[in-house]
Amino acid sequence: RAAPRSRLYSLNCVEWSLLPPVTKEMIAQAEQLMGRFQGDPSFAYEFAEINAEDAEKLIEGGKEFSIKEEVRLVATIEQIDRAVGIIPRGAFVKTPLGSVHENRNFEGLSFTEAKKLSSYFHFTEPVNLKNKTLLEKADLDPSTDFLDSLEHDIPQGSWTVQLEKGGTVVVLRSLLWLGLTFYHVPMTKQYGYIYFGNGEKNLDLPFML
């Protein structure tokens, strides 16, 4: 599930078109853009502000000072998945040989654990975990605690945890990517997330907390 996947878009929810594979260069270009999407995959965004060094690199590579909306779209999807694509602790396990598999014995988090941010992990290559000392890793289970926990996300307070349907469903919402909602039904295998937003990262979050 964490492997690269094909991504599609539609203008009418009937006909679907394939987006190009995302690259690091696409993500870097998309991060320079501000403002909402136009709804036109062929729309070209021009970089209003670009330093001389970046401009020279683009000229040397024979590239233009613009990118199409379909490129920005797939790059934004990748950013959202990396930042807020999450799973409950124990949903996946890592074997001693390093391979990761879906945990067939996972029966959901308990009601107590489901309300803690530390019980949820980013489903992507860990970053913070690699910076932990051996002493900090001593209390971690290498088979389940091999990903970055949400409790260490920066800025602190970028997630909200709420109980819905009489406390039977735990819902996490991202304040960094407004519109991202994750749900988990404790004591069951049911969990997932969906994003309904404008595609803009909430860069003002540190000043709002």
From TrEMBL:
Keyword match Cytoplasm: yes
Any one biological process term the GO annotation gives: motile cilium assembly
Keyword terms of this UniProt record: Cell projection, Cilium, Cilium biogenesis/degradation, Cytoplasm, Cytoskeleton, Flagellum
Annotated localization: Cell projection, Kinocilium; Cytoplasm, Cytoskeleton, Flagellum axoneme
Broad class of the protein's primary localization: other
One GO cellular component, as annotated: kinocilium
Family: Belongs to the flagellar radial spoke RSP9 family.
Protein name in UniProt: Radial spoke head protein 9 homolog
